[in-house]
Input
Amino acid sequence: MSETIKTDVLIIGAGPIALFAVFELGLLDIKAHLVDILDKVGGQCAELYPEKPIYDIPGIPYITGHGLTEALMKQIKPFHPTFHLNEMVTTLQKTGEPLFLATTDRGRVFEAKVVAIAAGGGSFQPKRPPINGIEPYEGKSVYYAVRKMEMFRDKQLMIVGGGDSALDWTLNLQPIAKRLTLVHRRDEFRGAPDSVNKMRALVTAGGMDLKIGQVTTLEGVDGQLTAASVKGNDGSVSRVEVDAMLPFFGLTMKLGPVADWGLKLVDNLIPVDTGTFETEVPGLFAIGDINTYPGKLKLILSGFHEGALMAQKAYHYVYPEKKLVFQYTTSSTSLQKKLGVA
Amino acid sequence: MSDVQELSRSNADNKTMPKITFIEHDGTVHTVKAEIDSTVMETAQRNGVTSIVAECGGSCTCATCLVHVDEKWSEVVGKPSAEEEDMLDFAFEVKPTSRLSCQIKVTEALDGLVVHTPAYQGR
Output
């Protein structure tokens, strides 16, 4: 386990609301660490609609999810936030007045004066294919991510999917697997053309198998797969001996560990005070899509407002002795110095 | 707005609101009116058809609003675009008549449309 990271604020999530909260906190000299389960910042903007238009950011008639993320990263650069990506906060405990201890699935420990949950629709987790009885195999012979390639050495591996994850892992694992079968629902792949060509060349050379269809049944004992059946689009079923499977069907949002932190939830959302966006636990805030209050709109612009008010209250916890004087970035030399423009 | 105007407006709505029937996997049937130019996904959400999840809100990026268009309607509704076909890779138990309902625009031609919704949208 690594050394405990002490921070003013721990932000859970790194979507647009979390990013802008870094700005509002930064203006008040409050430092933040952010943890996000995705491998990139931007949350839904990056994962769900990087190239899709957003028309309702005030003052910006049109921007894409990716564009907004880039712009926010530029805006918060002066405040040097620390990001911990590919990582999920799993436990959260209150240990002081206020003081929080949070741990992640990578064994990292944070001690934070304030915690802001900006987890959006929850954590992005892999979609589980609807194959009867798949659960006992998960983590034992069915995996949704590759943490160590060596695990698949000399295995009879089945990869399911047609995107870049499926193709990249097919190409990376084919040399070390005993036999690799790629299963996809159609004979077209949306992955990078170069990867598709390489995969097809391997199939032609007899280095791997490609099956068009859907996995219907699994066979195995005590979580260890022995075979999988693939139903072709013509209705024919073929049985393939496998001892490991990697399904890649993209991600879905699940509330995740937030549900286990003993917080009061209403329809899987966290109720907050609308003056501070603090939860019922002093020092613990919830901003963006994950919170609820009368009149709540799940809009990015609402989340920006919520982050600004959260920062005001957070200041009192981080600097209990100091008095906060409200200032404008337009006219305050002190704020402009923080932004590196004065 | 006066009562008379209200009345004439709702009459007009009746005329121009196609009916769509959602048949859920457990047999629950919802026959609802849809707004022209809205989508089949939005129609489902407005009418409490919870088997349409629509996680991404209709931007064709999550594949959680899958429907199987009734065979009789498949031709009228048409084929998915290349972008939608790519997203169908993230859906489950995809059939030749499957579509993402956020990508089906409601038109007068769809009056009477029947779609079947799956048991599982990936979450």
